[in-house]
Write a structure and sequence with these properties.
Elements lengths: L1 E2 L1 H9 L1 H9 L2 E3 L4 H17 L4 H12 L12 H18 L2 E2 L3 H4 E8 L5 E12 L2 E10 L15 H10 L3 E8 L5 E8 L2 H19 L22 H5 L2 H7 E3 L15
Helix pairs in contact: 1-2, 3-4, 3-5, 4-5, 7-8
Bound molecules: iron/sulfur cluster (SF4).
């Protein structure tokens, strides 16, 4: 089995959710505008570091999504998101705080690690480069609201950064957060992950894989803050047995009914 951060994270949120997706083959329809915009924006960032026309790439990739019956949130529209994306690229370029040498090698880097005899872990790190002159692992995020920065050091608890630090052995990590709001903003958040945190994350991965292998998929349901994973869960229609909700948000991977693809889990 090949695992990824997404798999571990889904299991820890709710093991039943993991089963719906990875074992029963249900997946969310790819119509969320924010997610598709994030992918288009990442392509534009790659173009920026390759000294190509980043705004042109954003327009091209975002145009591909235009006729896909996108689901917008927070009053977003296709045009507004494009405009915000171009403003964010401008701001990022003016800030000029990130440097990536040899971008063809140091963007979207695949790391693989053997976790046990039967299991590998794979991660795609957005970039390795320098933030304000300090070498670090970099993750891009697009969001419609700022990431919290208080209390000081909070970022060191981000599980995705912990995971990528554990995978790469790099202790200096950063998130570059592209905030789509009325006045766009780019946040540069940096922290240091300790050896102890990396070791603990490795134990968490091993423990989670053991639970998956022993078929522990009991639901961790919750509907009230702060334990409310069901409120935003795309699989809620399955748990409630409501076909109309299932049809709105989910599709089933072809052939999933006979589970023949179980040894080809994607991540
Ligand atoms: S609706 Fe709740 S219980 Fe069901 S999979 Fe989602 S988070 Fe888990």
């Amino acid at each position: 089995m090949t695992c990824s951060y997404t798999q571990i994270s889904q299991y820890l949120t709710c093991p039943r959710r993991y089963r719906h997706h990875y074992l029963d083959g249900w997946q969310e329809k790819d119509t969320r505008a924010a997610m598709l915009f994030g992918r288009a924006f990442e392509q534009a960032l790659t173009a920026y570091f390759l000294r190509e026309d980043a705004a042109g790439v954003l327009f091209r990739e975002w145009t591909v999504c235009k006729n896909q019956a996108l689901r917008y949130s927070n009053g977003d529209t296709w045009d507004r998101m494009l405009q915000q994306g171009i403003q964010l690229l401008d701001r990022f370029c003016q800030d000029d705080r990130i440097r990536i040498r040899q971008p063809r090698r140091n963007l979207q880097i695949k790391f693989t690690r053997t976790v046990s005899e039967k299991n590998d872990f794979v991660a795609y790190v957005d970039a390795i480069g320098k933030l304000d002159g300090t070498r670090c692992l970099l993750e891009w995020k697009t969001t419609s609201s700022r990431y919290p920065e208080e209390p000081d050091g909070l970022l060191a608890l981000d599980p995705q950064l912990l995971c990528y630090s554990w995978m790469t052995g790099i202790s200096e990590v950063a998130q570059v957060v592209f905030v789509r709001k009325r006045l766009v903003e780019v946040q540069y958040l940096r922290t240091t992950i300790t050896d102890e945190q990396r070791a603990e994350f490795g134990q968490l991965v091993e423990d989670t894989i053991r639970r998956v292998e022993s078929a522990q998929f009991l639901p961790h349901s919750g509907i009230r803050f702060p334990q409310n994973p069901c409120s935003s869960c795309p699989y809620v229609g399955l748990c409630l047995g409501k076909p109309e909700l299932i049809n709105i948000g989910l599709v089933r991977r072809p052939g999933a009914e006979n589970l023949g693809w179980l040894d080809e889990l994607t991540y």
